[in-house]
Amino acid sequence: MKLERLAEMDYEAAQSEKRDKLNGRLQVWSLLIALVGAFGLASVQSGSIAYIVGVLPLLVACLARYVRHSEAVLDQVKEYLFQKELELKYTGYECWRVKHKQAKSGEHLRAFRSCAVLIDVIATGSLAIRLAEHSIVLSVVVVFLEALVICLTCYWLSDTKRK
Fold first, then answer.
1. Residue-wise pLDDT tens digits, 2-11
2. Which keywords accompany this UniProt record (predicted)?
3. What is the 3-state secondary structure (H, E, C) of the chain?
4. What's the whole-model pTM score?
5. What angle do CA 2, 14, 161 make, to 5 degrees?
């Protein structure tokens, strides 16, 4: 196999990885909407099944961690493609993107963070109201624990340099 063909296949594989990560964003949003729908339905039920809504912030936090990792990999792939274009002295999309960089980037993470925090706050509030009917102390403890999970979610989706 020629070195040029190997380099071409490598570039195509990186482009494919980038495309997969970008397409994965839609799947993440679909999963988040499905979780909200399922837990929203469970939260309006009578009886103890409604308390399952307390699990929603935990699942959203797990999803946030996945999103952060996926975006970090996407950033690495974009940087790799940019370096390849520089090596080949080819002005492709990645070179254009770097040259015309917008003042803000990472809007996907910001939007996901806002949505995740809103969902978590609503779920925690709903759970706190139900628990307050039985025990104020239990309600306060649960709200505190859920607040820690919300803080972790915000950290994982923060604007700081992704790992």
1. 877 887 888 8
2. Membrane, Transmembrane, Transmembrane helix
3. CCHHHHHHHHHHHHHHHHHHHHHHHHHHHHHHHHHHHHHHHHHCCCCHHHHHHHHHHHHHHHHHHHHHHHHHHHHHHHHHHHHHHHHCCCCCHHHHHHHCCCCCCCHHHHHHHHHHHHHHHHHHHHHHHHHHCCCHHHHHHHHHHHHHHHHHHHHHCCCCCCC
4. 0.81
5. 140
For the chain, domain boundaries: 3-156
Count CB atoms within 10 A of the CB of residue 74.
Answer: 19
CA angle (80, 83, 84) in 5-degree steps: 85
Q: What does the pLDDT look like over 45-85, one tens digit per residue?
A: 888 888 899 999 999 999 999 999 998 898 889 888 888 88
